[in-house]
């Protein structure tokens, strides 16, 4: 049996409601999107990385950034993110899809690799994710077969399912085999951290972290981020007041 082709697909657009243009904001001399895509591309077990953005002219700079770094891009409908992911997966020839979002510039390739290995190495599954309630936000990733993405794109009618891509799968435990989310081997210290970029305070923290970590250790992982914040406890307060958006 042939090995499945595993492709990570990340979504990005310039018209984010809370912090427009956030994925191209600079940190350590490069756009956040460049940090995100290049870190993601180092994930063990991945066969490809693709960016899924919109057909809007406002997203031309996102396309130019990704393609300039050598990453493939799929453009689709702004509101129908599910359809956009399905189109990207088809273009990439993916058998398994790893879904991430481009507002996570500190994404950890080793952790995403652990997710892929867990999905492939255990009992057959339809869906597995990183537990975003136990890890800092900003390390999030999900993995599932493309055939379920195609089914969701064909059948999902709920606007929330089309906007958020995977609820069609994980909200149907009677139909699909859901794995227990990946959790940290040891408790996260300090707890309750946000490393995704949704608001200006998030950007202030993530930019500070990238500029502190990259010069000494370009291949830093999420535990290095924890150590940095343990050594600078006041930094955690920078975005402590930001609240995560919830699904509809």
TrEMBL record:
CDD domains recorded: GT2_SpsF
SUPFAM superfamilies attached here?
Nucleotide-diphospho-sugar transferases
Where does the record place a coiled coil?
Answer: none
Organism in which the protein naturally occurs: Azospirillum endophyticum
Q: What is this protein called?
A: Glycosyltransferase family protein
PANTHER family named in the record:
3-DEOXY-MANNO-OCTULOSONATE CYTIDYLYLTRANSFERASE, SPORE COAT POLYSACCHARIDE BIOSYNTHESIS PROTEIN SPSF
Superkingdom of the source species: Bacteria
């Amino acid at each position: 049996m042939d090995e499945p082709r595993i492709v990570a697909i990340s979504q990005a657009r310039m018209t984010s409601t809370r912090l427009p243009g956030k994925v191209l904001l600079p940190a350590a001399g490069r756009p956040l999107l460049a940090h995100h895509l290049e870190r993601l591309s180092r994930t063990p077990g991945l066969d490809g990385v693709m960016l899924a953005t919109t057909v809007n002219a406002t997203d031309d700079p996102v396309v130019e950034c990704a393609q300039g770094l050598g990453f493939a891009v799929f453009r689709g409908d702004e509101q129908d993110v599910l359809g956009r992911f399905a189109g990207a997966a088809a273009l990439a020839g993916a058998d398994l899809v790893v879904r991430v979002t481009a507002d996570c510039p500190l994404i950890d390739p080793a952790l995403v690799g652990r997710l892929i290995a867990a999905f492939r190495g255990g009992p057959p599954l339809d869906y597995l994710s990183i537990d975003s309630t136990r890890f800092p936000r900003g390390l999030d990733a999900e993995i599932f077969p493309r055939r379920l993405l195609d089914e969701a794109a064909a059948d999902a009618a709920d606007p929330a399912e089309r906007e958020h891509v995977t609820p069609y799968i994980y909200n149907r435990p009677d139909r699909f085999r859901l794995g227990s989310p990946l959790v940290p081997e040891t408790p996260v210290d300090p707890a309750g951290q946000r490393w995704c970029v949704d608001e200006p305070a998030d950007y202030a923290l993530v930019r500070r972290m990238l500029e502190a970590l990259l010069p000494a250790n370009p291949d830093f992982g999420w535990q290095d981020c924890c150590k940095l914040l343990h050594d600078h406890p006041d930094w955690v307060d920078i975005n402590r007041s930001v609240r995560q958006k919830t699904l509809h």
